[in-house]
């Protein structure tokens, strides 16, 4: 017998309104969750960067213990070849930055010297390399760049030799920067973002190569969630927010010839500053003397 009850019907699918409601709910959930997923991925990259710097920190301290507490030079000349701090540390890290392949290693985007948030587009065709994702603080590591043609021109005003500082002479190891992030322009920096005093990075008499090196650091002070990672002198790694007035970030050009109009570093901030003398309330410094 067939059931011919006119008041009872069989549904074979969703109505249009029901489908639209489901799509709307899915869209709302996606709008909520996708930023969370993106943030989680960025945190993972930041954690990987932190791990890289911790490994570099262990290598720096191991090197210092082997060499009477002296830090490795940022650049150094052996014979007619100019080497980098990565080469000095590679026996402790095994990151592929040996003396034999230093030129190719700097292009490596898989080693401990490479930040996963490295962005080649920041270089504006100025020659940045992934292997320079991190730069040492030349105030403590020193340098001997006499064998590097890029840094030995007759117009150079800064010395070609800067003495490294032994660990026992670092004034505030927990607050003095050893290694900071870089956009790939240089393997060493001064962290100098001042504009007025003689010898500061944006003074016309300051070495143009230091200007370029520092600019690479300025470019990425917001690399990880509006801040960046730093290796400090006692070996620990900490994230610091970018300066509260970071006008150098606003420069679109790859040339560090001058800061934006009206730029002035903020001397009291919660992040990393150039000098303790200039910024005594900052969380960390590249130098405590300002020299």
Short description:
The chain has 291 residues and is α+β, with helices and mostly antiparallel strands.
Number of domains: 1
Radius of gyration over all CA atoms, rounded: 25 Å
| Percentage of residues in DSSP E strands | 5-15%
Largest sheet: 5 strands, mixed
Structural class: alpha+beta
Explain the overall architecture.
The chain has one domain. The longest helix has 51 residues. It is built from five helices and eleven strands. Helix content is 27%, strand content 14%. The strands form four sheets. Strands 7-3-6-8-9 form a five-stranded mixed beta sheet. With 291 residues, the protein is of the alpha+beta class.
Tell me the layout of helices and strands:
Elements: H1 16-66, E1 75-78, E2 81-84, H2 85-93, H3 102-105, E3 134-137, H4 138-141, E4 143-144, E5 161-162, E6 177-181, E7 188-189, H5 208-218, E8 227-232, E9 237-241, E10 272-275, E11 284-287
Parallel strand pairs: 3-7, 10-11
Antiparallel strand pairs: 1-2, 3-6, 4-5, 6-8, 8-9
Features:
14% strand, alpha+beta, two-stranded antiparallel ribbon
């Amino acid at each position: 017998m067939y059931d011919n009850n006119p008041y009872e019907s069989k549904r074979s699918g969703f109505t249009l309104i029901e489908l639209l409601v489901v799509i709307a709910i899915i869209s709302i959930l996606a709008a909520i969750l996708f930023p969370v997923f993106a943030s989680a991925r960025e945190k993972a990259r930041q954690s990987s960067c932190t791990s890289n710097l911790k490994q570099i920190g262990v290598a720096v301290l191991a090197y210092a213990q082997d060499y009477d507490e002296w830090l490795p030079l940022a650049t150094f000349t052996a014979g007619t070849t100019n080497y980098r701090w990565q080469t000095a540390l590679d026996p402790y890290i095994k990151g592929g930055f040996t003396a034999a392949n230093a030129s190719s290693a700097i292009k490596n985007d898989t080693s401990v010297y490479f930040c996963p948030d490295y962005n080649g587009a920041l270089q504006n065709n100025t020659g940045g390399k992934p292997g320079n994702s991190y730069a040492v603080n030349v105030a403590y590591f020193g340098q001997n760049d006499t064998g590097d043609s890029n840094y030995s021109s007759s117009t150079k005003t800064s010395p070609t030799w800067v003495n490294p500082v032994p660990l026992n002479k670092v004034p505030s190891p927990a607050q003095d920067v050893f290694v900071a992030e870089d956009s790939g322009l240089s393997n060493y920096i001064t962290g100098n973002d001042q504009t007025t005093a003689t010898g500061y990075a944006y003074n016309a008499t300051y070495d143009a190569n230091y200007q370029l090196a520092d600019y690479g650091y300025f470019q990425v002070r917001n690399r990880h969630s509006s801040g960046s990672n730093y290796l400090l002198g006692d070996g620990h790694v900490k994230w610091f927010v970018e300066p509260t007035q970071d006008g150098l970030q606003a420069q679109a050009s790859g040339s560090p010839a001058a800061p934006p109009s009206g730029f002035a570093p903020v001397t009291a901030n919660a992040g990393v500053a150039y000098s303790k003398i200039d910024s005594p309330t900052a969380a960390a410094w590249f130098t405590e003397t300002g020299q």
